[in-house]
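Narrative of activities, Objective 1.

The group set out to show that a structural description can be obtained from nothing but a protein's sequence at a throughput compatible with the screening campaign. Below is one input-output pair from the validation batch, recorded exactly as produced.
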Amino acid sequence: MSNQTMSDIAAPLRLLRLLAADHPDLPAMNVDVSTIFPFGAFEAWRQAAGISSERVTYAEQSEGRTRVLRAAVDYGGARLSLVAYSTVPGHEGGEVL
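Output recorded for this entry:
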C-alpha cells in the first residue's frame, strides 16, 4: 500500500479542477493520477492545455498496428501528459490487408 496522502496528489487534482472550470465543454474522460493520463479526446485536451502541435510526438507500436500520440506540459502546478492510441488502417490481427 502507498504512503501517499491527498496532499501528495493535490497538484494533478488541482489541474483537473482548473481544466473543468476553464473548459467545461471538454469531453469527459477517465482519470488516473499517475505518470500517464489516458485521454481519448487528445486534440481537444491538447488545445485546452495550450500545447502546440509541434510538441506532439508520433510513434507506432505493436509491430506497426497501433499509432501513439504523446504531448506533455506543466499546467496548474502539475505535469499533464496526454497519450492517445489508435489502430493503423489496414492492420488487423497483425497482418497488413
